[in-house]
Hints:
Helix content: 25-40%
Oligomer: single chain
Shape: globular
Number of strands: 24
Amino acid sequence: MPEPGRTSPAPAAPHGTPHPSAGLEWWYLNGHLRADDGREHHWMVLIVRHEALHHRDTEPGYGCAVVCTGDAGTVSGTWVTPGWHQMLRDMVDGDRAVDPRVRQAMQEVLAEGVPLPDRLLDSPVRSCDTALDISLTGLVALRADEDGSYSLSFRGAGHPHLELLLVPRKPSRPQFNERGHVPGRFSDGADELTTRLIPRLDALGTVTTVHGEQVTMQGQAWFEHTWGGAWVRAERRAGIGDRCWEWAGVQLDNGWDISAGYSNVRDAGTGARHSEARSVTVSAPDGSVRHCEMVWSPLREWTSAATLDTFPTAVRLQIPEFDFDLEVTAPPAGHEIRTILNGRGWWESPATVTGTMGGVPVQGQAFLQTFPGSTVADIEQYTRRAYTIAREEAAAVYPTRPGDDLSALTGTEDGPALDEATRRRLHDLLVQPVHHLLDVPGRAWRPYAALAVLCLFGIDPEAYRPLAAAPELLHTASMIIDDIQDDSLLRRGRAPVHKLIGTSAAITTGTTAYFAFGPVLERIPQSDPATMLRVHRIFLRALRAGHAGQALDLAGHRETFDHAVATGDNHRLLEQIRTAHRLKTGVPVRCIAEAAAVLAGATEAQIQAVGHYFEAVGTAYQISDDVADLDGVSTAEDRRQDRTPKVPAEDLRNGEVTYPVAHAITLLNPTDRGRLRDALYLQTPAGAARAATLITHSGALTACLAETREMIDQAWTILGPLLPPTQHKAMINALGWYAAQRIPDQASPAPEQHAR
Length: 756
């Protein structure tokens, strides 16, 4: 084994000494404790300070995050001072990298107060510029004692209390490289940081449980101190990415300690990573260190139903220079801290370590941490993340492998089990055709809404993950049937199901999928029978309304359209199409939201308001879908990848009277109204192109946009005041604006280009 490298010189001041001129500074500590009776307690405390954005002489903002894991499970909490809250408001106001709909909605939520689950800490902060002595009064205090030890106390309501003495067993060293340098994300380099750590301290003190029992414990601790330039600014232009990292702080039983970090800057729009760095600081039992290369390989991941962020929960850590081959294994789920401290939240959990060093087995403990990117540059790209959860949960009813259990899908839970040959046949007939569409990621805003509504009312959605599958399966069923009735040629960039297996078989496949919500609902936590009956009735109502809307669509609106063309009066026509859209899409989306609100225990006023709002969202989405039909319902990202989800102007080619057609009636002169009617009735690509040109130049798209925005805003005036300030409140508000404003980037030229 090679000798440890050259050690760094001693710091000018004791470890943890504040740097009051730094724009950003944090003190991060964690530890593993054990009582004489064998009980264990794992803890993490973070204290962070950030300068004010507009006036540096203004009081800085402070934040605190705490995680405690013991016999009673895991409890986490986050607190911010008024200064931190103001800093966030200033940051959001000037952040041009964020989807403008999300930015506006978040501005409104921050104006209401500190978003839950964060709590406002309005008591004074006491700190010293020359020595580590910081206290967020009544919550947490960290002090450097004259003998070189540290005192840490935490007393948060509803959390175990900590009173600990921390005695260093190794010296403070730079982390990750010889200078402890952490690059920033801004081109001027002013947000670079310096970081140092004490990788091992003895910890002794008491843990007071939430029930008031005081337990003496001892063990080991970890202490990191980081400072440098401010990491957020009053203005950020589009294209400036998020600083992200995955990290493990490892303490092995043989006295070796490891700080391993994989960092990168992630483009908020594309997800591309750059400025990647993988570095490790290895501390020998004698305290000497070496900074060297490593291999960091995630072994298992988990996607949060609340934030849609994905975290590695087990990683393989290889350090060739020391012949380390370790697995760091955290709990598989549920250790996300949801907070505005870093945007949406991060993963922080204790972990176990097993592996080898030079071929000799080793073991130990660790903390595993992941800071993901938090910028929502495009809300549609963000909600697409819910697809992963929806598809995973749908697999319980629609398994991917032929021969797997199909009792839930086929209603054969009781009685003789289906033999393997029958299961394989049914997989080909009922399952695989659904996966033909389900396996292509959609926008997934319906599954996202189901999970987000739970969060609106303070319910952790993790146990309700299967709920994400219900709207996605309902939507897939409707697409299969809708494509048959419209004789569609393309769906999600693929041939529609009926073109693959035939119309009769596709009808059976789609109809079966309509009722898949039943076995899905059996997999969520079961409330009292009356509540579950109400939820089932809500989903059945969604089916009835959706079919009624489809019936109106099939019947068409030609008679009313002809009257509108002749008279120039489009009021009846708009109302008729709006009703079809409301029944076909608005009410089913309403039912999804209402079911989630009922399961969350919302009040009747809240249930009705959230239902009314999502009915408006669904209706607005269907109207904007009519607009997007002019471009094949494609986005800028679709065009960059040369991907066409649907045939452009398909509705117009089929002679359908859409919402933009209805609005164009009053905006065109009598001659052009007749031309629009004649072009529509041709039911050809050329006719669709001419109709699209008339519609676009009439200003009908702007009229659709104005109407859908008003529809969303009116519904929000009812729902908004009934909700406490949360990040999900902002996202749901922004989702409504997205549904109303989903107009393609190049609506007008697309039909004629494709027609040629």
